[in-house]
Write a structure and sequence with these properties.
Elements: H1 2-35, H2 61-65, H3 71-80, E1 83-89, H4 95-102, E2 106-112, H5 116-128, E3 135-138, H6 151-155, E4 157-161, H7 167-170, H8 173-178, E5 183-187, H9 196-207, E6 211-217, H10 234-241, E7 250-256, H11 258-264
Parallel strand pairs: 1-2, 1-4, 2-3, 4-5
Antiparallel strand pairs: 5-7, 6-7
Length: about 260
């Protein structure tokens, strides 16, 4: 009887606990935001200044400021080297779209964002960092969006895609062919769909002629080097680096195959 009573209470307890954890993440993020003057302290985007407003999770500002947010992707992006342009589908608040400019990874950034508030914040963040004249802000990326871009951009860019499952519609064979010389990063959302495994197979097949594939997943975080966190409790330190996700995330990096890139010249 006691066990049945406990199980009946468990869903409510879990919901209350999750709500408390999220509130604590937000409190900690705001504290760190003040202490670091809303400026990224570590990682490839070091020196990037974040504006006061956000269209995304406030709590995510903490790992962003510490250079821990999507750390595997950030490090891989830095290794990809500088390109003429950074094309960001699902640009959010401009963390990547503006951060790539601040980091010297591109000369110009093209930010596609469907949310009006997000587009406004991208512009504000670009102005705050003195690069507004080098950022083009556009609405939702539609199929064939690359036809709107200058040929020299498509031929020499990083394409960064985080569009909550729409990647399987936008990245068809024609898109990979168009970006045959580009390095492409995709945050995967196959788990959104019952036929997710089939969608992944199609995505890989679409890229097979032009790009080689490597995979990334969320891995360990080393907090010992972050002197800013030494006075925080163990629990708070780990909450500060949490991205608040419901599962372990995966990304794919597509690198141009030399033969395919040469064929495009």
């Amino acid at each position: 009887m006691l066990n049945r009573m406990l199980y009946a209470l468990l869903p409510g307890w879990r919901a209350d606990t999750a709500a408390y954890v999220e509130r604590r993440r937000i409190e900690l993020a705001r504290q760190l935001d003040r202490e670091l003057a809303a400026t990224v302290r570590y990682g490839p985007f070091r020196g990037l200044r974040l504006g006061p407003d956000t269209a995304w999770s406030v709590a995510d500002r903490a790992p962003m400021l510490l250079g821990l947010y999507e750390q595997e992707v950030l490090e891989s992006l830095a290794r990809a080297g500088a390109r003429r342009a950074f094309v960001n589908l699902g640009a959010g608040d401009g963390y990547y779209g503006v951060g790539a400019l601040v980091a010297g990874l591109c000369q110009r950034s093209y930010c596609y964002e469907m949310g009006e508030k997000g587009r406004r914040i991208i512009g504000d963040t670009a102005r705050l960092n003195g690069v507004r004249d080098r950022v083009e802000i556009r609405a939702k990326a539609e199929p064939g969006f690359y036809l709107e871009l200058p040929a020299e951009v498509v031929d020499d860019c990083v394409l960064f895609v985080d569009i909550e499952g729409a990647e399987f519609e936008l990245l068809d064979q024609a898109a990979f062919q168009a970006f045959a010389k580009a390095v492409i990063f995709v945050e995967l959302h196959d788990w959104f769909f019952q036929d997710g495994a089939q969608r992944m197979q199609t995505l890989r097949r679409n890229a097979a002629a032009t790009h080689a594939v490597s995979e990334m997943t969320t891995a360990a975080r080393d907090l010992s080097r972050l002197v800013e966190l030494r006075e925080f409790s163990d629990s708070d330190r780990w909450l500060l680096c949490s991205e608040g996700r419901g599962r372990q995330m995966d990304w794919i990096r597509f690198d141009p195959k030399p033969a395919a890139a040469a064929a495009e010249r």
